[in-house]
Amino acid sequence: MLKKKEAIIIGAGLAGATVANILAKKNYKIIVYEKNNFIGGNCFDYYRKNILIHKYGPHIFHTNKKEIYDFVCKYTKLNNFINKVYVRHKNLLFPLPINFTSIKIIAKDDANYIIQKLKKKFGKTKLITLSQLKQINDAKIKKFYHFIFQNVYANYTAKMWGVKFDKVNPKTINRVKIILGDEHNYFPQDKYQGLPINTYTQMITKMFEHKNIKINLKIDGKKVLKFDFKNKKIYLNKTKFNGLIFYCGSLDELANYKFGILPYRSLKIEFLLKKMKKFQQNAIINYPSHPKMTRICEYKLMTQQKNIDNTIISKEYPKPFILSNKQCNHRFYPIINKKNLVKYNRYLRLFKIFPNFYPLGRLGLYKYFDMDDTIEYAMKLANSFH
Ligand SMILES: Cc1cc2nc3c(=O)[nH]c(=O)nc-3n(C[C@H](O)[C@H](O)[C@H](O)COP(=O)(O)OP(=O)(O)OC[C@H]3O[C@@H](n4cnc5c(N)ncnc54)[C@H](O)[C@@H]3O)c2cc1C
Description:
Distance between the termini: 16 Å
Strand order of the largest sheet: 7-6-17-18-19-16-20
Bound molecules: flavin-adenine dinucleotide
Shape: globular
Largest sheet: 7 strands, mixed
């Protein structure tokens, strides 16, 4: 007898939508459970006072992978936004990644000397790492390196991850890139970049549109699934379920925190309506030397909404993730280190005994995934089924 093709997806974010989209076309009957009353997960965007904003902070789609770009383009057109981030440090405002313009603004009289040295040393190379800059034995370059290491990167990283300045791992920072030229682009390695001309929510809704997909909002996956660890069986609403199960939530939550809480970094995002056409020079400005805030985003400048008199900005304040505190119990970034990965792997082993269970997405896999990585992983997984 032919086996029924069925799948359950917990989580209606980008990962869940990608898997649903691919499996529906392979004739799977899919039921999605999403605990929120909206779809899109972290990519969810909506209109407030006619201005499109991103609930979980600014999202810019960028990738170098044509296959992922082509996939996204089936569900939305992208606008031509290029993310030109600035850094505000005291009275200075300069591009990030650091480029020749930044060098001129920061190093002033030494700038030409530094740029010529870099051109001579690296020739036509477009990108170098901070660590390559550090290794150059030249007093003026060393002074410049120390300035940006401390004021641009270490301060920001310490605040972002909640560690003391001297506990920031220089190895991580030294991997950041410097652009040898005047190109101002936060994603210089990526060929494709932009935001949906309408919304991410509409794009993801379209990905879910198929007669084989049924979405249930406001239902927590933990409540509909029961795990029988002894007999290695999973029950859906009390009936044994032999189909595929994709879980886009955090595994510690699913296991009732049996091995403890998986650490994440959270954010307080403060949205402010400003009665002016434009608030700042560019969509994203980082504030590494601010005591608490990391960046300000102005959404209109990314979404390219026109003819609106007001504008909305968001200010981001990194916080520890605390399960019992409503202000910071959203899981924004997994804190990936050896200790936390050991804990995550214990959870993974716990659920691995179920052959039809697949953790998915940035929470299920406990990985920092950009949108293109999220889609790529989900695509590969979905394509591994017939
Ligand atoms: C602040 C921030 C900025 C970012 N900016 C960018 C950017 O500029 N560019 C970029 O490429 N990427 C960016 N990303 C990454 C991007 O958000 C992710 O790649 C993408 O959203 C991951 O999708 P996902 O489906 O794995 O997870 P999520 O978006 O988290 O979706 C998971 C879904 O599962 C649901 N869920 C979880 N548990 C349960 C449960 N028990 N029952 C029912 N539903 C459940 C959640 O409610 C959610 O809807 C950013 C991420 C953050 C945090």
